[in-house]
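Q: What does the assembled structure look like for these inputs?
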Amino acid sequence: MVAVTVVADPATAFEIFTQEVDAWWRHGPRYRFRGKRSGTMRFEPGVGGRLVEVYDDASGDLYEVGKILTWEPGARLAFEWRGPNYRPGQVTMVEVRFIATQDGTRVVVEHSGWESLPTGHPARHGMNEVPFLHTMAGWWQEQLADLKTHGRRTS
Amino acid sequence: MTSPDIDRTLAALADPVRRQTIDLLRRGPRRPAELAAAFEVSGPVMSKHLRVLRKSRLIEEVAVEDDARMRLYRLRPEPFEGLGEWLEQVQAFWSDQLDAFKDHVAHRQRGRR
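A:
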């Protein structure tokens, strides 16, 4: 989980986050999707829309990061995430929450594994019976913390 | 972002029984039969899960001194360390992005006033 507080109300923060994604999303191969080629990042509004990086509108040349799963202006945004070097069928999920605070909005990002994708999502591969107990980061960090203490105990 | 090792670890952990196995082994080594009983699965099904976890090197077999026939499984911390490093990279990525977003919002809001 990563969080930051911005000086805007939740509705405005959501609007800037989605509509102006290309203006704030960092450039360079570490942050964009096709190495040296920088395109234009875009959220297609609403559930079923996509997060894409467009290289050429005319020819339709783009990289699809993933489909939008939740679109609640001023509150919550969730979308699939496929990294450029994911294997076929591998998909993760990013959830962004906008929480009103006294002086602005707390923006919380959680990047979780496929086990937290919504029930019925094709990428879940028959894992639909699994309760969403653990987000990837939360569960693993718990494992790691435990293993560190365990390691110290036994070594 | 994902190396083959991380991929193997993630694939091994994509199954709920295997995640629960890891959860249980955190409390100490266990026999295969104990694990099968805890998750209400058959011996062969449990063996299959243990094989996947062993191949991905998340667990290892340990010998019991008094009884040569008895097998115990315990966790190996190494794959989790690799996972931890990868998670830190993911965290760093989003932390950089949110910093950039914060600056952008501040800049835009100054312009609006």
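Chain B touches chain A at residues 1-2, 7, 10, 14-16, 19, 22, 26, 75, 77, 80-81, 83-84, 87, 90-91, 93-106, 108-109 (CB under 8 Å).
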